[in-house]
Amino acid sequence: MIDVFIRQHLPLLACLVALVLGGKMKIVEEPNTFGLNNHLLSQGSQLQARVTPSPISGPPHLFRLAGKCFSYMESMYKYDFCPFHNVTQHEQSFRWNAYSGILGIWQEWEIENNTFIAMWMREGDSCGTKNRQTKVLFTCGNSSRLASVSEPQTCVYFLTFETPLVCHPHSLLVYPVLSEKLQKEWDEIEQARYEELITEQGYNKMLRDVFEEAGFLKRAKQPIKQEQHTPSPKHQTLEQCTQEFAKQRGEIERLRSLLSQHNISYEMATGRPTIPLTTVQDQHLRGDTGILDNI
């Protein structure tokens, strides 16, 4: 009887269940993050910068690029270049452990022949025994965009960034960007080089000092010299001290005996040997067997 009732009213029961649960069920659609925000990623694989970016420097008309990012797709990887900040790489994959990492953090300019050649992004994620680093070359283009990415060496990346901001032939010159004080210093360095007062090596070092003071180059870290206290080879232990004392005392006794053999008295108070004065009554000088009649 029950089986017949269920078979007759099964469609009605199904509709009733769907009606009751329909108001509580919700389908949520989330954008595919390709593993970039996977909560299963270890904390160490998150994008964590090891250093802070250097201050913004260089041609002032490029400062407007700060705060912007430019993307480039290469195979399964997406590269993001954020001028004066960093360069990152994101693997566009459905793998649960898809790679995302920092390829470099803004550090300094590369300068050659009075021209800003490229940005250097260093201190990126670890890569074996070194850190990843990226060189970003600036070239003229109709729009600001990341044009190409390559990896000529393991964990060393080259990016080409096109922008109309560098199309003017003087847009990347270094000298006009310097302060009057640093321009004067550069003039004096050039004059000293012309007069052969400094070597080429000295010229390059002094010029680098100017660029470092301007903030274009990162100052090289000077190794901290720690004063190393070299312990005396003697008297390192009580036993050695006692042995040394006995040795010195024996040497003093030997010298005192030697002085006594030569009739030289030794005064303990002053520590200075005294030689007895030879009188005429002695009639002899020490070491001379003759008579002092002619003296």
Automatic annotation (TrEMBL):
<feature type="domain" description="DMAP1-binding">
    <location>
        <begin position="174"/>
        <end position="275"/>
    </location>
</feature>
<feature type="domain" description="MRH">
    <location>
        <begin position="67"/>
        <end position="169"/>
    </location>
</feature>
<dbReference type="InterPro" id="IPR012913">
    <property type="entry name" value="OS9-like_dom"/>
</dbReference>
<dbReference type="GO" id="GO:0005794">
    <property type="term" value="C:Golgi apparatus"/>
</dbReference>
<protein>
    <submittedName>
        <fullName>Uncharacterized protein</fullName>
    </submittedName>
</protein>
<dbReference type="InterPro" id="IPR044865">
    <property type="entry name" value="MRH_dom"/>
</dbReference>
<dbReference type="InterPro" id="IPR009011">
    <property type="entry name" value="Man6P_isomerase_rcpt-bd_dom_sf"/>
</dbReference>
<dbReference type="InterPro" id="IPR039794">
    <property type="entry name" value="Gtb1-like"/>
</dbReference>
<keyword id="KW-1015">Disulfide bond</keyword>
<keyword id="KW-0732">Signal</keyword>
<dbReference type="Pfam" id="PF07915">
    <property type="entry name" value="PRKCSH"/>
</dbReference>
<dbReference type="InterPro" id="IPR010506">
    <property type="entry name" value="DMAP1-bd"/>
</dbReference>
<feature type="signal peptide">
    <location>
        <begin position="1"/>
        <end position="22"/>
    </location>
</feature>
